Structures
1.
Amino acid sequence: MCPPKWNATQQFCYIFIAHSYTWSAASATCAALNARLPEVPSETENNFIANMLRTHGAHSGWLGMEDFATEGEFVWATSQELPEYTNWNSGEPNALVVGDEDEDCVEMIASSGKWNDERCEHSIHRFSVICQKE
Ligand SMILES: [Ca+2]
Ligand SMILES: [Ca+2]
């Protein structure tokens, strides 16, 4: 059973927060709700998250995935485990370097549900956070 205002799948509860945050601020926002940024085990969950983003008119949303420990090796943030399921956009992750920042965090693009590594401090046009919990 999910709390009021949370949306349920068979595996998780999700809530949409209409605010643009950096990855670390988004992660802290979810942690404050005893939740986390979405970690995606399957296409079913991926589609559900993408639909939530589109329903709310969001451009994209952060996922709980980063390559802080080893550049180019993206892992789920809470478990630090390599993903079994991925849905990278064509040519991603490309680890683009912009200024002093490499792309170490992962966003889901709402229109396609595809993933892109992005600068963690980039919050422009990231009009949303989705949090996930058991
Ligand atoms: Ca990187
Ligand atoms: Ca990228």
Note: The chain is about 15% helix and 30% strand.
2.
Amino acid sequence: MRDQIPGSFATASDGVNPSQVPTRTLYTGAKIPAIGLGTFGSDRFSGEAIAQAVVGAAEVGYRHFDCAAVYGNEQLIGESIQVIMQGGIRREELWITSKLWNDKHAEQDVIPACMQSLEDHGLDYLDLYLIHWPFPNYHAPGVDVTSRDANAQPYIHENYMKTWRQMEKLVEMGLVRHIGTSNMTIPKLKLLLRDARIRPACNQMELHPHFQQPELFNFCIEHELVPIGFSPIGSPNRPQRDRSHDDTAAIEDPVIAKIAKRLGVHPAVVCVKWAIQRGQVPIPFSVKREQYLANLRCAVTEPLTDDEMRDIARIDRNCRLIKGQVFLWKEGQPWEDLWDPTGEITPA
Ligand SMILES: NC(=O)c1ccc[n+]([C@@H]2O[C@H](COP(=O)([O-])OP(=O)(O)OC[C@H]3O[C@@H](n4cnc5c(N)ncnc54)[C@H](OP(=O)(O)O)[C@@H]3O)[C@@H](O)[C@H]2O)c1
């Protein structure tokens, strides 16, 4: 049976007052809620179930939703957004992010792709529009990690800037309030910051206690780029294609487990709480009410102690989970090439 998107919206009595949820200030002065709901179902949940969770999450106090065209559910989420707004939540109280997929980097495709996301959401502007990956390399949904795009390319800054100029146009057209990046590295961001007319406001990056990316995190803070942390719980149920034998799990870490025990919460909640307190914006995914409510609630409860924050800083394992193998451009290439491990952009 199709999961039903609720027809009406009602503020939950056990929810969190959205005005108490912390915010981060972007360089424009706009404020982004310090936690959002992820909407990528990892092939496990239907678009309807996710759209239903969007209404439920708004009812318990979420105002920030992280979406993307490639998640294939923006139209359904759009129905939820309409329900939420008809329920009395004003557009300016919401923060809606979407992302440009890799097959829409060509100059003529960027504006139509954004307009499609707007139409699907039933909105006349997005708060944030990100280039999802810095490569125009396409792969069909759900393919194996060994799959490659026959036309795959390395990062070509000149081409990325052509895409960026269209992103800038979206701001000038009033269709998008902020533009940003995702899955970038320091050398790529340096070039973009040098050449952008409209600077990126946020960088979305994998961030959890076992993958803290301190250098990139600090670079973002220094350059007024708000870091948005994806897979903040370590994506425990990510698809098989995103699993490797040496991956570690933050929620199984004894340091996280000990803090969870003290607080009487699931270790996942400790990961989210740490993320907010460190200064990134986590976007945990869940369609389960008790989970997404617990994740939001921890944003407004007593902070972790300084010792706990220090202990978590020490458990970084540099364990990247979303390696991006399908975006590689050469046979037999190590996935690390996507992430510029030498500090220079990996050449063709
Ligand atoms: N920019 C990018 O390239 C990129 C890449 C990946 C993700 N993202 C974004 O980031 C979002 C989040 O990442 P993610 O979905 O990979 O992983 P995640 O948020 O780290 O993990 C989500 C899973 O954690 C479990 N969970 C959530 N809250 C919990 C709680 N309170 N207690 C216990 N378990 C809990 C749930 O598992 P169960 O469902 O099994 O209960 C849920 O499916 C995505 O939805 C998407 O919006 C962006």
Note: The first helix runs from residue 47 to 60.
